Amino acid sequence: MSKYDTICAVSTAQGTGAIAVIRLSGKESFPTVLHIFKRKGELMDIKDVEPYKAYYGEIFDPLPDDKPLIDEVLVTFFKAPHSYTGEDSVEISCHGSEYVQQKVLELLVVRGCRLAEPGEFSKRAYINGKLDLAQAEAVADLIASQNAAEHQIAVNQLKGGFSGELQELRSQLVDLTSLMELELDFSEEDVEFADRSKLYELLDKALKHIGKLTDSFHMGNAIKNGIPVAIVGETNTGKSTLLNAILGEDRAIVSDIEGTTRDTIEETFTIDGLTYRFIDTAGIRQTSETIEKIGIERTFKKISEADIVIALLDGTKPLKQIFKAWSNIVSHVNVLTQELLVYVNKRDVMDAGTMFSLNDDYLNYMKSDYEKNIEKHGGYMTDEYCYSITGMDLYDILSILTFSYISAKNPEDVDDLKSNIRRKTNTPKIDGNTVLVTNIRHFEALTHAKESLEAVRKGMDDKLSADLLAEDLRQALYHIGSITGEVTSRDVLNNIFGRFCIGK
Description:
Elements: E1 7-10, E2 17-25, H1 29-34, E3 37-39, E4 42-43, E5 54-60, E6 69-78, E7 89-96, H2 98-110, E8 114-115, H3 120-127, H4 133-144, H5 148-158, H6 161-185, H7 197-215, H8 217-225, E9 227-232, H9 239-247, E10 265-271, E11 274-280, H10 290-305, E12 308-314, H11 319-330, E13 339-345, H12 352-368, H13 370-376, H14 383-390, H15 394-399, E14 404-405, H16 411-424, H17 440-461, H18 466-484, H19 490-497
Parallel strand pairs: 1-8, 9-11, 9-12, 12-13, 13-14
Antiparallel strand pairs: 1-2, 2-7, 3-4, 3-5, 5-6, 6-7, 10-11
Helix pairs in contact: 4-5, 6-7, 6-18, 7-17, 17-18
């Protein structure tokens, strides 16, 4: 499709509503609309159009003799380059009837317009230098945002916060490359910088900067797609009841029959402006049933993938069974990197003495059966690993984790749990200056750039020649430039903008 075509599309959501907005962009936008628009019953001359002013009038069909009225509308004209796309643009606000929308589009196409491709308005804004590629992608993120944090991150990126970070990083790499190129200029004289401390200083600064951005992807991606919270426990501990209570709807089947949940169930819910992805898992127990065993395997996988794990225990069971269930869960949780919330459910029917003594009895259980427990804890939950990271062995870590009590049928208990989840969420304060990487394409490009810089660092340590180091630096610059669109391909652009809605 030619970038010089005048394009049109409905920009508001599909369907019938109070109003709809139809957009045009291209050099023929003004005359095209003026052929079908009357103001105060008269056609307007293009020289009388005052940009950035809304005109009330009528859209009509000029072909029939009686020139029937289609709709009463407001029309706003935007003059290049001061428009979203950087081209002459027009927005027609009409009534939301689907017939009216399609009839107006039909009149525009008859006058020579072309229906826009998905994301073509934003693509033109990028091509015309109104947005860089990262900002253009932020437009789609802003439209798709579902919570306050996601919205703020998209707004910051749209305003150029992320692009500013990349520009600073690129400037650091250009300084590095300049020093390398200077050394190459004197290569025939066999001159080499005796002291490369400045190069090391610049390189370390760039690596630290890019590391900060790549490290932010985990949280940025979680905010964008929902922070994963796994609800785990034995069968019939009330996991599905708790999920339904959190969501406020009957999403999961609740039954007294053990093993009802055979697979994971995922639903999102927003707490204080953050979206969480709650995962109800299959109950953990010994079973020979093939399908249920697969579900339990998936439970352990979801535990490893969750940022927050809710260990749900059945308070009506004997103490030893509660402790055994708890030990089985914690052996699959990395308490050093994951937040763990331990809840004993069914407090409304629990024995008061059990509730009073549970934490003390658990510590006694750990003391008496500690070595046996340790043998069951594989992987990263070994004593050696825990001590090397925290200075505490597994027993010390478990001893600071206490039980809380809940009834999944009590709304106040569920509200307290939600508040606790929000408190345990390790997110930075999201404000107008927060920059988080949320886009997998950006993360991959930054990762490749980081690898190139690490190759430069290794090459400097190995005393490689400046021309080899410069090539790795150019690769790092290439990957950074691919994020903002300074270097890109047509296929990449089509893939990015093809995901946009048609009117954007």
